[in-house]
Design a protein that fits this description.
This protein has about 260 residues and is an alpha/beta fold. The protein has a domain of about 150 residues: P-loop containing nucleotide triphosphate hydrolases (Rossmann fold, 3-Layer(aba) Sandwich), CATH 3.40.50. It has nine helices and twelve strands. The strands form three sheets. It has a six-stranded mixed sheet, sandwiched between helices. Strands 2-1-4-5 form a four-stranded antiparallel sheet. The longest helix is centred in the last third of the chain and has 21 residues. The termini are far apart.
Length: about 260
């Protein structure tokens, strides 16, 4: 992969909290215009990586480049080219849904802010609640608004940290259609999720974070090659991503236990 094709480059990334290692040497690259899924158990360090990539947290060591800018020395340029949706909706409850979106369009110095807001409200099924205060919204509605706000201005890279949390199945399907459209249009999507079926369907490349490092990375087809061959009984059953994830993490734990027992 040439430098012009790389949206995110991470080498030797390390981070500890109060001398407790969380990231022990993370390496990966994300191709421009792709959907990259970072998987890992709770507490594996996924959100820590997202915070470092989006300049919300400083790494202890390692080289992190986002959209051609170093996150430490060019954090402002990084922030101008990205958008982030975290695990919890970051919306202003005093404002209406429309006012929240218009506020973001103005912060991004966009013209026709009302049109941009209306388009996003329609895409996320919020047009009927557009002029209600967000304090009256359900959790799922707040989540939809939060995701809509992250799309304002067509950022070059979108970070989605557990984006489907709080969304009902119908809205989740619509949301992932939008993500696919964004990637097809050249936007890079960096995703963490607990819904492995979604990563299986939408990610171009998948990495598994375990014990502070990336233990495997590749396309779904490449990961399937690491799994035992399909069992043939009455029908051939191909392993799903959830089975692959559990098998890889389980194997890694066995290796660590063997090392510890020596």
């Amino acid at each position: 992969m040439s430098q012009n094709e790389i949206a995110i480059s991470v080498k030797g990334l390390k981070k500890s909290y109060k001398n407790v290692p969380v990231l022990t040497g993370v390496d990966f690259q994300v191709r421009k215009g792709s959907v990259f899924a970072l998987l890992g158990s709770n507490g594996a360090g996924k959100t820590t990586i997202v915070k470092i990539l989006t300049t919300l947290l400083k790494q202890d060591s390692g080289n992190v480049i986002v959209n051609g800018f170093d996150v430490e020395t060019n954090s402002k340029n990084v922030r101008q080219s990205i958008s982030l949706t975290g695990q919890f909706a970051a919306v202003d409850e005093v404002l209406t849904g429309r006012e929240n979106l218009i506020m973001i369009t103005r912060l991004r110095h966009l013209d026709n802010s009302h049109q941009v807001a209306d388009d996003l409200l329609k895409r996320f099924g919020l047009i009927d609640a557009a002029d209600r205060k967000v304090s009256t919204y359900s959790g799922g509605m707040r989540r939809r608004l939060d995701i809509a706000m992250s799309l304002v201005g067509n950022p070059q890279i979108i970070f989605l940290d557990e984006p489907a949390t709080g969304l009902d199945p119908e809205v989740r399907i619509g949301f992932w259609q939008i993500v696919r459209e964004l990637a097809n249009g050249g936007t890079t999507v960096f995703l963490t999720t607990q819904y492995l079926d979604e990563a299986e369907q939408f990610a171009n490349r998948i990495a598994i974070l375990h014990e502070g490092e990336i233990i495997v990375s590749g396309t779904l087809a490449e990961l399937k090659k690491l799994f035992p061959p399909a069992k043939v009984e009455y029908i051939e059953k191909q392993p799903g991503l959830e089975e692959i994830f559990l098998a890889i993490v389980g194997k890694k734990n066995e290796e660590l236990n063997k090392k510890g027992g020596k």
